[in-house]
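Notebook p. 47: complex prediction with coproporphyrinogen III.
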Amino acid sequence: MNAASLGTKPILRVLGREREETPPVWMMRQAGRYLPEYRAVREKAGGFLDLCFNPELAAEVTLQPVRRFGFDAAILFSDILVMPMALGRKVEFLAGEGPKLEPMTDAAALSQLLETIDGKVFASIYETVARVKSQLDSKTTLIGFCGAPWTVATYMVAGEATPDQAPARLFALRDPVGFGRLIDRLVDGSIEYLVGQLKAGAEVVQIFDTWAGVLSPEQFDRWCIQPTEKIVAGVRQQIPGAKIIGFPRGANAMALPYVVATGVDAIGLDWTFPRSLAADMLQPRVAVQGNVDPLALLAGGEALDREVDDVMTALAGQPLIFNLGHGILPPTPIAHVERMLKRVRAG
Ligand code: CP3
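Predicted complex, structure tokens below:
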């Protein structure tokens, strides 16, 4: 990354700890079912995974929300569950049911994982990254991503989405050493995957730890902070200065230890995190990303205006990437996204 690109891209400036008068904006899950143009491509592609592995169509849906809304970032269109595929697990997305994997309930199943990452799984994703990069203007930042080891493990262990991540928590309680071996495999795979994305043209990577909030403080340190710290260090060993955003959803009181230990350039916060605390404790150290409640965006009107104003008042005085506190919900009207952006950009 050269100084010129740092100079022209608002998100990179904020990640370099500069405050922007109007904070740069993007939305988690910004490419998705709330957009008619996404639904049209999705139908053409066949299954969700077919879309993820089709560089032409995946690049197209990555760019759709950037074209429509002028977001400051494009986020690679893919899914966190390509990692288990690269480790040799079967992954399916059944219509209306979410992901289905073969469950792994104990350490014996670890022997079924591939010794090394299957690079074929990632090849088309790197091609998507390169295609998107070649079509972005000089102000828009390309963000790659992976799932954090803990969150990916919750799906690998249970074989599906779970309300409380109990299967993975039980595995970790019954056999912390065996569970640690699974986490280590995911750490190594994630370093390789993120480095691959950065080499293909991603300028920033985000580590999604969607289910970090169910861990006790001690477990949070072991299964969220330590693996993330290893990924950040491992990526920067190969790509010095790599820009990394961490999103430990539900971190609450563990947000500060997460920031201090991992060395991320920004922390993504969900809407349950007190904004005044974020301004006092976190923003003096790192940029903050967030944290509009996706339900306020769905509700629209004054509830949305109040939420946007609250984020701006509390957080826009220091380095901020304006975003949601989690992914946009599929029934969200496009007019609400437009209303939010107009308000942010009006200052
Ligand atoms: O943010 C973006 O626009 C980039 C693309 C992206 C997707 N998934 C596309 C997707 C990203 C960054 C993800 C991350 C992801 N995937 C996470 C972490 C972030 C989060 O939202 O918590 C998780 C936990 C997953 C796993 C996953 N993928 C589940 C549980 C589901 C089913 C639930 C659902 O929303 O349908 C998915 C499917 C998925 N991933 C869709 C999209 C656009 C919907 C698929 C469709 O088009 O039908």
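Notes: Confidence is low (pLDDT under 50) at residues 1-5. Residues 28-33, 42, 48, 75, 77, 79-81, 98-99, 145, 147, 161, 208, 210, 327 surround coproporphyrinogen III (CB under 6 Å).
Next step: compare against the earlier run before touching the bench.
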